[in-house]
Design goal:
The structure holds two protein chains of two kinds. Chain A has two domains: 95 residues, no CATH class; 30 residues. Chain A is 78% helix and 0% strand. Chain A contains five helices and no strands. In chain A, helix 1 packs antiparallel against helix 2 and helix 2 runs antiparallel to helix 3. Chain B is mainly α. Chain B has one domain. Chain B has three helices and no strands. Chain B is elongated, with a radius of gyration of 17 Å. Chain B starts with a helix and ends in a 14-residue tail after the last helix. The chains are: A mainly alpha, B mainly alpha. At the A-B interface, helix 1, helix 2, helix 3 and helix 5 of A face helix 1, helix 2 and helix 3 of B.
Chain lengths: 149, 95
């Protein structure tokens, strides 16, 4: 019976590593941040989930300590909860920094400021994102100095 | 056997993530690659623990998973407000 569990665990681990490599290739080759986030989601859910489930089955079938299975389940739960949070925060920060998805159609504008002032704010941010960031940094430091004085 | 193959796959994925973190055009690409590298490090720790027959490294994996999200959010907050102690309530005036 133990060999059967090991074979099932091996199948899970093989599928998981396949999805993990697919997600990593997507992170390397996709054209902009948002599509890369999509690829990172593949390797965080399908890849890591399958790998951890396979390792849990492996630990059960080879008869290691039961705490190993529980620890793997804790890692799986933490990854499944925190990975969407990180991706969401990253997407919001990238949109607010003025990046636009290159694969989105031009008619459907996404992001804050797109509905309020579609002409001025996002275009200037897109044209010179580095300059805008620098301006923001100097402005905030100036504000801080004023507040302190 | 399958554990060694999975370890090699994770190493390939980590290499691609490191390349993206070095070449990323924006800071968000680098943050995303750092997040992916963190998840890959957890997987590598677990697989190496099983490969060497001593799966005691999983505690370090849990710690790494908890630190990964904190690090990502801290870097994002720093690059949005320019200050980690910013209250973060109001929007920055021009973005």
């Amino acid at each position: 019976m133990a060999w059967f569990g090991e074979i099932i665990a091996g199948v899970f681990i093989a599928i998981g590593s396949f999805f993990y490599v697919v997600g990593a290739i997507g992170i390397y080759r996709m054209p902009d941040v948002f599509t890369r986030m999509h690829a990172a989601g593949i390797s965080d859910t399908a890849g890591a989930g399958m790998l951890l489930i396979g390792m849990m089955l492996f630990a059960i079938s080879t008869g290691v300590s039961f705490f190993v299975t529980i620890k793997l389940a804790i890692i799986l739960g933490v990854i499944l909860f925190t990975s969407p949070i990180a991706t969401h925060a990253l997407a919001q920060a990238a949109l607010q920094a003025g990046l636009e998805p290159v694969l989105a159609s031009k008619k459907v504008m996404i992001g804050p400021g797109a509905h309020a002032e579609p002409a001025s704010a996002p275009k200037s941010a897109k044209k010179a994102p580095k300059k805008a960031a620098k301006r923001r940094a100097t402005k905030s430091s100036a504000k801080k100095g004023r507040a302190r004085s | 056997m399958i554990l060694a193959a999975a370890t090699i796959a994770i190493l390939v994925a980590l290499t691609l993530g490191v390349v993206r973190a070095l070449r990323g055009p924006t800071v968000f690409d680098r943050v995303l690659a750092g997040n992916a590298i963190g998840t890959g490090a957890i997987m590598l720790l677990a697989l190496l623990g099983f490969l060497t027959g001593r799966p005691e490294f999983l505690d370090i994996g849990i710690l790494y998973a908890l630190l990964n999200i904190i690090g990502t959010l801290a870097v994002l907050k720093f690059f949005r407000y320019g200050d980690l102690s910013h209250p973060g309530g109001e929007e920055p005036e021009d973005f």
